[in-house]
Structure formats: structure tokens, C-alpha cells
Amino acid sequence: MAGDVSPLAGKTIDPNRLVNVPRLVTAYFAGKPDPSIPGERVAFGTSGHRGSAFNNAFNEDHIVAVSQAVCDYRRGAGITGPLFIGIDTHALAEPALASALEVFAANGVEVMIDAHGGYTPTPVISRAILTYNRGRSDGLADGVVVTPSHNPPEDGGFKYNPPNGGPADTDITSVVEKAANALLADGLKGVKRIPYARALKAANVHRRDYVTPYVEDLANVVDMEAIRTSGVKIGIDPLGGAAVHYWQPIIERYKIDATIVSDAVDPTFRFMTADWDGKIRMDCSSPYAMARLIGMRGDFDVAFANDTDADRHGIVTRSSGLMNPNHYLAVAISYLFAHRPEWGANAAIGKTAVSSAMIDRVAAKIGRKVVETPVGFKWFVDGLIGGSFGFGGEESAGASFLRRDGTVWTTDKDGLILGLLAAEITAVMKADPGEIYQRLTAELGAPFYARIDAPANAAQKALFKTLTADKLGIKELAGEPVTATLTKAPGNNQSIGGVKVTTANGWFAARPSGTEDVYKIYAESFVSADHLRQIQDEAQAALSAMFAAG
């Protein structure tokens, strides 16, 4: 984290500081982005186009341009099946859905919207795409989720999932982004569009029950019967997000002892406690944003929350409170590969380059291969589809895993099944995930992990693209010889967008932010907190020297 923790962190926000929703929606429709200004262009990051209408970064023009670009991409790629579309609970989600439908309907796309005008989590869309496409070689489906993930209430987001069900890769997003910006620059002349009322009545716009098929299929990925018969007491906080209307049907169908601590939906997210910097974020890995559920830890055997599009998970245990995402990934991997006998003997573990080395130690213990990739869940898609990955997870509290029979469940992150898995672990092991993690550290060592942000201007961030081991020049790190200096992920030889330096008992990775004038340093030590700080200090010193040398 960058900067000092705000005195507002962990507290509810003064009503005067909440987002003005009518003003935000007005800005969405009234604001006209200038494509000659970089910050007002369509820009696809790792999870689609994001921004706020207040600064002309997420307006109606963006959405109609992106939607037309998606239609054109589908046509060029021969994608003729239905497009599954879902939204989260951010204020800009419903306006953006309306804009997108006007374009999709006019272009003749067979669109599947929620039957009841409700919210649809990212993993539900991913599963719907994969389920529809199973056994098909043509007429394939794809999808869109209107969400900025856990970002603040004033933000909007729009992401595209191709027929593989996962996040679109850069080959696709670069095409869509370029086409959308060309449409913006040309005054949207190439956009086909019909009025919203006509779009809703169009023959190619269909209502779909997203809830029931997902809920009924859950028993094929999580042992719901073990949870039910154990009587494990569960707390669930949707954080006002898209999973809010999924949990009660899950509870009722599987007769589990679970309590939804709040089912409130409010686009200001006034019920949230502020994150570390005093802003509202539905970040279920943040102890500040999760203050409400953490305060209830004694009421449940295990509790969990999801971010706004429910692709992330936050696990709260009675034994240790909110778990560090890396810690829970290690526990989940250790448990799953011991309790999924139908998974392939060669099914590997997908992890990102900035995830904890504890995962590598767990993998060595259970005899499974680790495939280390750059940041981004897209790198796990092919492995999950083919079953060569049993599990794929990121340090930012996003993961998915195979069905119990070893076939694909989702190729995007699924925060719902990771929460339910915590309940399964507690039920089967008679210990919560926090206690299981303590057992792992007693055997394999306890890591000290942290991420910090450091200032870097555009020129300095650009230097990361030319980094080599020789340029960095680190031979020793925190008293240990360097064993590897990597600019490409060892699992797939793809650029990590920065550098990773490893030793026998520690490592750091550094990569520039795509949205802020900072670079991120991830670091870990299996020695001590002091050793971790030494790694961080030496990493910053080496990178500062690189900046100075230009």
C-alpha cells in the first residue's frame, strides 16, 4: 500500500462524502470524452475498460463504441452464438447495460440478460459460456460483464469474455480497444443503435434465469453435502455486490447453516467501511473494508465475503480473522489435491509470479507441479479448460478450480466457490482454514509477505520494459546469493512486465502500475519480518539506481 493509513480506514463514511448518484448518472449521459486526451480514450487493462463518468473516462460514448467494437470483433471471428451479459451493483452498471443493449440489439446479436433485471456475478457468466459451448465447434457463445470489480462507487467497468469463458487476452482487447477509439474519433458514425425500449422488445434479446442453473450445479464443484451434514455455521457478506441474490437460493437448496449478514444493495455503498486510504472499495481482501465481517468472526465457524462482481473472495476465520489471500490459496491447494481423487494425476497448480512461495512449498509437499505465470487470470484459462490445471489463483484473492470430476467449472475467478470451499474445509477437516494454515507453516515455514507502492514517473515506468539481469545488477539480496533474476515467467515464458529476483529464502518482484504514477514491489521472506524489510529496502535501492542511470 502507498502512503499512510487514513484515520477514516475501517469506519463508515460520513453521508456528505458519499457519491452523488444522480450527478454521476447525469455525467455518464452528458459527458463527451475527447479521444485526443489519453485519459478519455477506451483503455482495456487486465479486466476491461474502467473509469468514472466524472472525469470522462466511462461515459455512454465509451460503451456504445466498445459494444459496436465487440459486435464487429464477433463478426470477424465468426462468433454467432448468444452473448451472455451480466451487471454488478455499481451505479453506472445499469445505464451502461442500457447503452450496450441498444447496440447489441441493433447488430442482431442474440443477447441473454437476467430474467428479473437482476445482478449477475462474473463467474456465473463464465460458467454459462462454457456450459453452452460444451460439445460445440461452431455457433459459440461469449459474454460481457459490466463491472469495475471492487473499485469505488463512482467507477464503471466493461469487460469481454470470449468463447473460452475467461478474460479476453491482449490479442482480442487490443483489437476491440483500437476499433472503439476509432469509432469515438469518428463521432460514432459507425455505431448501429436502436432506442432502449425497442431493444428490450427485440426478438434477439432474451431473458435468462442465471441463478437456478448455477446454484443447482454447485454440488458438482463443492461438497455441499459435507457442509450440510457437518452443521458448520457460516457467515456470508455479499458486500452489496452481484452475489447478493444468489446466497439465499444456495442456502435453501442445500440446507446449510448459513446467515447472510446483510443483503443491502445501495449504489453509494454507504454500509461499507472505508479502505486504507479513506475511499470506499468493496475489496474483500482488505481488513479495513472487511471490518464489519471481521467484527462478527466469533459468531461463525467460518465466514466469507465477495467483491462487487463476486470474482474475489475474503475468508474470515474464528481462529485468525481475515486471512491473507496468499495464505488461503496455500490452504485451498493443500486441501483440494488431497480431496479430489478424480482430478488427473498430472493436474498442476497455476500461480502468478507475485504470489507467495508458500504455494511452491505446498506443491512440493503434495508432489504437484507449479506453473508460474505473469499477473492476470487469462494465463490459467487453457489449463483449466483442458484439466491440466486443477487450480489457478492470484495473490489478489481470485481463484477457480475444477469440478469434482476433473472437468472445467469456470475460466474466470469464482469468489462464491472459494467461500464455500472454506466451509467444506472446515466441515471435513474439523478445523478452519486459519488453523490449517498454521499447521502448514509449522511444517514448511512461515512466510512474511507484503506489497508496497513507490513513486515512478512515466519515463521511469517505461524502463521496466528494457530491464535485464545485467541492468539491475543484483548478485546478492538481503545477505543471500541471488538464484534467479527473471523478466519472463518460468511457467510460460511470457513477460511479467517487470522483474523478479529470488534467493533460497526470499524474493521480490517489481512492476509498474498501469493507472498510477507508482511501481509495485511485492516481496516475501521465510526468515523474519526484518529480513523482509531488508529485501524491500535493497529492492528499492537497486531500482532507484536503475532510474538514476536512465
UniProtKB/TrEMBL annotation:
- Keyword field contains Isomerase: yes
Extract the InterPro entries matched here. Answer: A-D-PHexomutase_a/b/a-I (IPR005844), A-D-PHexomutase_a/b/a-I/II/III (IPR016055), A-D-PHexomutase_a/b/a-II (IPR005845), A-D-PHexomutase_a/b/a-III (IPR005846), A-D-PHexomutase_C (IPR005843), A-D-PHexomutase_C_sf (IPR036900), A-D-PHexomutase_CS (IPR016066), Alpha-D-phosphohexomutase_SF (IPR005841)
A Pfam family of the record is PGM_PMM_III
Cofactor list: Mg(2+)
| Major enzyme class | isomerase
Q: Does the keyword Metal-binding apply?
A: yes
Give all residue intervals belonging to the Alpha-D-phosphohexomutase C-terminal domain.
495-539
Q: What is its EC number?
A: 5.4.2.2
Task: Please state what the protein is called.
Answer: Phosphoglucomutase
Gene name of the encoded protein: pgm
